[in-house]
Amino acid sequence: MESMDYLSRIFQEIIDHPLEDFKVEEQNKEYEGATFILGKQSFRSRKAKVTPKKLGYFVVFWEKDEENKNKPYDFDSAPDKLIITIIDQEKLGQFILPKEILAEKKILNNGKNQGKMALRVYPSWVTGLNKTAMVTQKWQSSFFIDLTKNPDLNRLKKLYFD
């Protein structure tokens, strides 16, 4: 899994903790879905896909219900953070999204909101967006780090562990 290899390299740089309880999420395997524990926090990871006809990157996250139907993740059972890794030729970056933000943005089911099963993300290098996408990019930017060249390791630690 390309994104997990990349995550492992990042973790070697910023923390001296091994990944624990690593599990591949078979239902989201196409997006390199996985969960794991690092330190005292739980994480869900996905690799976003390039979409040729739309700006930004696309990622899914869902689980099966009792009737084997896809459903959005629930706030109560969601890991602490969702990591979305972007690997696009020479460009590398990550969104590290706390579950509270995912609930606020109506991405997780929290009883009040149904939640979503997919999301489009817009790293800082994506330009020429329409107004709606620009609004999304603006809130996402607080949780994005460009890892292409000389990443700010202190900011990276903060995104992962604060």
Structure description:
The chain has helices at 2-14, 99-104, 131-141, 153-161, and strands at residues 20-24, 34-38, 41-47, 49-50, 57-60, 63-64, 70-71, 81-88, 91-98, 118-121, 144-146. With 162 residues, the protein is of the alpha+beta class. The chain has a single domain (2-161), classed as 3-Layer(aba) Sandwich (Trna Endonuclease, Chain: A, domain 1), CATH 3.40.1350. The chain has a six-stranded mixed beta sheet with strand order 1-2-3-8-9-11. It is globular, with a radius of gyration of 15 Å. It starts with a helix and ends with a helix.
Strand and helix layout:
Layout lengths: L1 H13 L5 E5 L9 E5 L2 E7 L1 E2 L6 E4 L2 E2 L5 E2 L9 E8 L2 E8 H6 L13 E4 L9 H11 L2 E3 L6 H9 L1
Parallel strand pairs: 3-8
Antiparallel strand pairs: 1-2, 2-3, 4-5, 5-10, 6-7, 8-9, 9-11
Protein name: MepB protein
Pfam family, one: MepB-like
InterPro entries: MepB-like, MepB-like_sf
**What is the CATH C-level name?**
Alpha Beta
Total number of helices: 4
Class by helix and strand content? alpha+beta
Say what the CATH topology is.
Answer: Trna Endonuclease, Chain: A, domain 1
Strand percentage lies at 25-35%
* Oligomerization state: single chain
Shape: globular
Give the number of domains: 1
CATH 2nd-level architecture: 3-Layer(aba) Sandwich
Give the full name of the CATH homologous superfamily. Answer: MepB-like
Query: What is the residue-averaged pLDDT?
Result: 89
In this structure, how is the largest beta sheet organized? Answer: 6 strands, mixed
Q: What helical percentage do the residues reach? A: 10-25%
- SSE string: HEEEEEEEEEHEHEH
| Count of individual beta strands | 11
Unreliable stretches (pLDDT < 50, length at least 5) are: none
Structural Rg = 15 Å
Strand order of the largest sheet: 1-2-3-8-9-11
Query: Alpha-carbon distance between the termini?
Result: 26 Å
Pfam families: MepB-like
Organism: Enterococcus ureasiticus
Protein name: MepB protein
